[in-house]
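FORM 7B: Structural annotation worksheet

SECTION A. Query
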Amino acid sequence: MVSRCAILCEVLLAILLPPLGVCLRRGCCTVEFLICLVLTILGYVPGIIYALYIILFAETEPPSDRYDTLA
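SECTION B. Predicted structure
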């Protein structure tokens, strides 16, 4: 689990430079980073909104399958 301090730093970076915040959360060669980069180039505010969505609401790990251990 990510600490609150790390999330706060990522949110601050996402407000200043939206692609950098997404890069720290997901990686620099991902689809999310490229979408955020294009949105930031087209308009600064859509890039911020998308970066905050990725950092705060999108899951970073797929949910684990707890019942698969019996098989």
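SECTION C. Observations
Residues 23 and 29 are 8 Å apart (CA to CA). The chain has a mean pLDDT of 85.

SECTION D. Sign-off
Analyst initials: ____
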